[in-house]
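In this supplementary section we document a worked example of the pipeline. Step one takes a protein sequence of length 433 as its only input; no multiple sequence alignment statistics are reported here. Step two produces a three-dimensional model, which step three serialises into structure tokens for compact storage. The input and output of this example are shown verbatim.
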Amino acid sequence: MEPSEPKKAARTRQLARQSSRAVTRRVDDFLSARGPRFRALALTHAFNAAGDTLVAVALADILFLTPDPSEARSNVVLYLVVTLAPFAVIGPFLGGLFARFPVAYRRGLGAASALRAGVAMLMVFNLSNDLVLFPLAFIMLVLSRAHGISRNSLLPVTLEGAHELVAANARMAKIGVVAGTAAAIIGGGLATGLGAISEAAGSRAALLLSVLAFFISAVAAQGVPYPPRPESSGVRRGMLRVARSVRLAQLATAGVRFVNGFLLFLLAFAFRDEQAALLDFGFLLGAAGLGYFLGAMVAAWLERLLREEPMVVAALAIEAAAAFIAAQAFGLFAGAALAAAAGFAWGVAKLAFDGLLQRSVSHEDRGRAFVRAETLFQLSWVLGAIIPTAVTIPSGGGLAAAGILALGAQTVYVAGLIRPRSNSSEEPRQQAS
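The serialised model returned by step three reads:
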């Protein structure tokens, strides 16, 4: 006998509730894998990443946020300068702020998200006013960088007991990718659906969702603990203490980032010149993003076998090998695989460096150290990208040059690691902020 309609409806509602509880439990387990304090930081990061994606969806057809290499090379250079500009703004400001108030990045975590909610709301009412919209977009980029630096600085404070820092950073990276992907699906669908009414309606809806995401991120940030108060020491305020191992890893990771930018834009222009529409810049970014996600997954596993320094060495080796192989058989598949390999190498190197810095630098110096490192990495990426943008380089020769450069950086880094050290070199270096 067939069940009655009311029974069918009740069974459907029960299954929906069970499925909803199961999904909620899995999401909570994903966020809470390393304790309740980590969960608070993961929540603020997830909603901040979702808000970032929603803003990008809203402005995709309005602002030149992602360059298309089919446009003039001068426009691409302008994009690169725009990506570097936030670091020029926040670097001196945050460096000085962290020097005077080491707990500032805890307060800044929530403040950055709250301010981004306000900026997104202003964007809703100024979509058609470029004179206002462009400065607001720039402020949004600055606040995004400030939030990321504060998050990285606070991660060790949220871990209970002795946890693997690389694995924790990898989990945070995966949370960001998952949250961003979900926001892209929701925001893209909403923007597309309302876009049938008007382009502005879809963009405004995505921006309003980003306001909600940033607000939740600001609220979640209140659950992140403050770092311990700095102990009194003989080190002068305003001096940054960074160990030699961290400085070497920072330079090597900057080398990975330089080659990453060089390869990505070399590929983009090479395929544009060949009019390969299937492999445009967005496709390359997607392949690099997939590689980064895989790198985050592998980095957590590698930490059980290796220290952070060999992981950075391995990243340079992967980039060198991928560039050499692609130079021998350059084509559509090789280009996509190379972009993914570059993203993978960057993911492994960046997460390894973050873990090394978090483990080696005291909490009162960690914020300033991250400001300098992130600025150096972005500068390296821009410099690497500008070369194939400003000068037309044959793909084969450019790929071979990238492989040689990555191999050379790997050799120099390894030589620096094994070089005999004097007692003075073991002490943290004093650097003026």
